[in-house]
Amino acid sequence: MNRTMLIGILAVLGIGTYVSMSSLYTVSEVEQVIITQFGKPVGAPVTTAGLKVKLPFIQDVNPIDRRVLEWDGSPSDMPTKDKLYISVDLFARWRITDPLQYFLRLRDERSAQSRLDDILGSETRNAVAKHELIEIIRTTKDRVPLRDVLLTDAEREQDIGSLVPIQKGRKLVEQEIFAAAAEKVRVFGIELLDIRFKRINYNESVRPKIYDRMISERRQIAERFLSEGNGEAARIRGNRVRDLNKIQSEAYRQVEEIRGVADAKATEIYSEAYNKSPEAVGFYEFTRTMQAYKAIISENTTLVLSTDSDLFKFLKGMAPDGGVVPAPDQNSVTTDDLTEK
C-alpha cells in the first residue's frame, strides 16, 4: 500500500466520521426536538430521549424545553374599579405542550416570554379594572376581619374599622385572569399552569389618601378618649370642690359651736365674778377699755366721743396731778391730750 492510497483511506474515514457525527444527535430527558430542513419543520416532534439520526448538513436540531417554566412580570400601575391606582406584581408557571405549534409561532423562549408579558399584563389590567380594591386584596369571601375592641357601639354602627363586604376575593380574581389568559396562550402551543399575585401595593399618589383615612379613624378614637378623660377630670374637680365646701362648712359649724360654748362659759364666769366681787368687775372693765384705747388710738388720731360714752368715762375724770378734770367744753380728745395726761 503506497502513501497516496493511505491518505485516501484516511480522508474517506475522516469524511465518514464527520458525516456520521453530523447525522447523529441526542435528545435529553428535559427537552423535545423539532427537526428543520432548510428552516422548515419536517416530521413529527421528537419527544423521546436517546440517540437519534437526521440527515447531515441539510437538517438542523431545534431543542425545546419540556420542563415547567416561570414567567415573572414587572410591577405595573393600574386603576381599580373605585379609581385607586395600585402597583400589581404577578407571576405565572407555564410549559410547552405543542412543540410544533410553539416553534412555528414563537421559535424560542424569549419570544414566548414577550408574548406572555402582553397577554397576562392585558388580562390583569382588565380584571383589576372590573373589581374594587378590596376585592383584589382580600383572599376569601367569608373571612371576618378583627375589629378594634376599643370601639364604642356608636362607632361600630358607623362602620369604623370595618371592611367593605366582598363578592369574590383575590382568589377568584386570579382564576378569572388565569381562565382568560390560558385560552389565549393555547394557540401558541403553551399550557398556562398557574397564576398568582406576588405583590399588590398602593401607588405613590394613592398612599397619602389611604394614610389620611387611617389617621382620621385613629384620631376619632383618640378624640373620644380625650373627651372621656376631660369629662372624668371635670367630675373629679367637681367632687373635690364639693368635698372642700363640705369640709369648710363642717369646720365653720364646729368653730361656731366652740365659740358659742366659749362665749357662754365666759358669760357664766363674768356673772359669777360680778356676783362675788363688784370691784373686780370694775377693774375688768377698766383693763378692757385700756386695751381698746391701745387698739383704736395711734399717732395723730382724733376721736370724737360723747360725754356719756363708755370709752370717754375713764378719760374725763383724769388729771396730770391725779385730780379731777372739769368736763371739757367740746366732746373731743386728741392723742396729744392723752400724751400730756
How would you concisely characterize the structure shown here?
The protein is about 50% helix and about 20% strand. The chain is α+β, with helices and mostly antiparallel strands and about 350 residues long.
What report would you give on this structure?
The protein has nine helices and eleven strands. Helix 3 (109-129) packs across helix 6 (170-185) and helix 7 packs antiparallel against helix 8. It is 50% helix and 18% strand. The N and C termini lie far apart (181 Å). The chain folds into three domains: 3-64, no CATH class; 69-204, Band 7 domain (Tetrahydropterin Synthase, Chain A), CATH 3.30.479; 296-340, no CATH class. The longest helix is centred in the last third of the chain and has 70 residues, at 207-276. It has helices at 3-23, 99-105, 109-129, 133-137, 153-157, 170-185, 207-276, 278-296, 335-340, and strands spanning 24-27, 31-37, 40-41, 50-53, 59-65, 69-72, 76-79, 85-96, 190-202, 302-304, 332-334. Mean pLDDT is 80; it is low at 327-341. The strands form four sheets. Strands 6, 7, 8 and 9 form a four-stranded antiparallel β-sheet that branches. Strands 3-2-5 form a three-stranded antiparallel β-sheet. It has 341 residues and is of the alpha+beta class.
